[in-house]
Write a sequence for this structure.
């Protein structure tokens, strides 16, 4: 599950994002509304947490505009604005409202609860490439009929490669979709996952390096 956290207090941003990641969530962070807007344009989220008073304005109005446009992602306001009128206004737009100072365990619990509210997407069709078959609904992958034992991230990488087939999946996109912003772009975590996938897919090889771009999955030669 993936969360967007928008908070301009850098110490609080670090503390909250660390706690959410410790609960198994992928977390992207933003310090203001333009940064949050950019993140929402390129990623899908199961929940969004907003401080109300940000350098670029009150997040209440921003979330209200998105709601009017049909944005369904559950939102929690994390704010020092604690008057009854503030709470009522916030809950009229968002799904939850937590006043600072707060208990970190309570915040994590509320975010997890909101993530579970996200409607389950329609089960996508089974993806196929040569003798490789991936069923996102069942979270199963088979090659030549044999079930593959994949980790969560290996499955996510393989799924993105198959969704992009016959085109290549860019390295930056794979890092962004499968990990979160915490990963260093220079890290070799993707290369490690690719090497493990290649081993598990066995011969003949299906995952090919596209120099300067990323990786392509293909039943034959690249």
């Amino acid at each position: 599950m993936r969360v967007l956290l928008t908070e301009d207090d850098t110490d609080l941003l670090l503390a909250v994002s660390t706690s959410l990641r410790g609960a198994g969530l992928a977390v992207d962070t933003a310090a203001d509304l333009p940064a949050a807007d950019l993140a929402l344009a390129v990623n899908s989220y199961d929940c969004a947490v907003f401080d109300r008073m940000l350098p670029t304005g009150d997040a209440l109005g921003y979330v209200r505009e998105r709601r009017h446009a049909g944005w369904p992602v559950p939102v929690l306001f994390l704010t020092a604005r604690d008057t009854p009128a503030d709470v009522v206004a916030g809950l009229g737009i968002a799904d939850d409202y937590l006043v600072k100072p707060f208990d970190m365990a309570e915040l994590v619990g509320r975010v997890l609860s909101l993530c579970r509210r996200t409607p389950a997407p329609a089960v996508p069709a089974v993806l196929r490439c040569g003798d490789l078959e991936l069923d996102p609904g069942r979270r199963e992958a088979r090659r030549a009929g044999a079930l593959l034992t994949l980790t969560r991230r290996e499955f996510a990488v393989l799924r993105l490669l198959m969704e992009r087939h016959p085109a290549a999946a860019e390295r930056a996109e794979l890092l962004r979709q499968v990990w979160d912003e915490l990963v260093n772009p220079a890290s070799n975590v993707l290369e490690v996952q690719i090497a493990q996938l290649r081993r598990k897919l066995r011969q003949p090889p299906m995952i090919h390096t596209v120099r300067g771009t990323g990786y392509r999955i293909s039943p034959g030669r690249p």
In short: The mean pLDDT is 88. The helical segments are 10-22, 33-42, 59-68, 84-91, 104-117, 152-164, 171-178, 189-201. The longest helix spans residues 104-117. Residues 166 and 180 are 25 Å apart (CA to CA).
